[in-house]
Write the structure tokens for this entry.
Amino acid sequence: MKRPSAWIPKLRKILPAGELLEDEKGRARHSGDKWFASHMPDVVVDARSTESVSRTLAFAHKHGIPVTPRGAGHGYVGGCVPVRGGISLSLVRMRKIIEVHDRDFVAVVQPGVITAKLQQRVERKGLYYPPDPASRKDCSIGGNIATNAGGPKCLKYGVTRDYVLGMEVVLTDGTVVRLGGRNHKNKTGFDLHRLFVGSEGMLGVVTEATLKLLPLPTYSASLSIGFATMKEAAAAIRGIFAAGFLPCALEVADEFTLAAARKRTGSRMFDGCKAHIIVELDGLIHGVKADLRELRRLVQGLEPVFIKTANGKEACEKVWELRREFSYSLRDTGLTKLNEDIVVPRGRLEDLFLFTSRLQKDYGLPVACFGHAGDGNIHVNVMVDMEDPEKVAKQDEVLDKLFGQIVEWGGAITGEHGVGIAKSPWWNLATTGASRHLHKLVKQALDPADILNPGKFLG
């Protein structure tokens, strides 16, 4: 790559005024995400249009300049850290909701649209966009597409990939292509638009997405249930599915997480609990209420510490408000939270909790687990005192043990956050040589100069 002083003036000339940020403060804002790594880009392109993205990529392709696309910067794996400098390409200004069509059941949006704002807009029309990452009030649709984001509701409704019908993508040489469309079924050629979902900004830059919408469920209700042991909670989860229920969300939290939440919130609700689950149902009011009664009878037979019922959207939201405190509660401990969004086959949930309990005993590092029990996607948080060199020295070994066991069980090292930088050390462990070769073939075909988000898990 040429010296920045040689190419930045040329880039400035081809972009609209105000779209190139060269000051140190602006560059620093685009140097990382919510993970621990950062690296200053040489310059930031604050793109406002597809044309600006296209011009930037064509310029970078011609001159061999690294480009790191980024959304709202709320990732947890360093995915948008510009590790090789060059250009940080921000899409946050491209935040128009272009269309919400209540007969076609689609929304057309730019990548900078905040997920919660889209959900609010479509719900006013009686429509529903289900993917609901915990950071939905801050994260963007473009970032959700890059990581194939999920959330609690993906148990019943699926993840971001299941809602992307079509997209406009700018390829590495600046070519603008439209893939897919607005039809809910389409088998014309390959599903190329889905190739870019979960690609972590390595294959192209999404500048517009056409998203599938559903009818908005008219009613929701939930049970918040405390248990004396994690074994009892796991039995309840198995029983719920065995009885034929498919909740829209089924969450679990362990003893360490609940203790931290008690301290932060002052709530005594979790007294006597070493495990907690949330089960939410949605649909038509009569069906939901009937299912809720049956579900409550089922759970009562397991003799939980408590069962609390929430009827209606507002009551359910209060349950989720408490659930969203879990992550903040762990931060309040003063320990650094290494948040690993691992996935295990659903039948391995109890094994996972037993294994993390052993890790905690063997290494003296607290391990807090909570997350999406319904699909086996649990956030395993290794809690480290960064002021204690002995504890810091153990963290990598704990993660090696964790990921090694997950892979042995047929699980995955990431379910929502992506690989980025944080999970790169375990990329080879989690994939076969043939799979890695195929990834590289796709990367080389679409980005032969390796300028898009370089330095991540593909090298």
The radius of gyration is 23 Å. The CA atoms of residues 123 and 216 lie 7 Å apart.
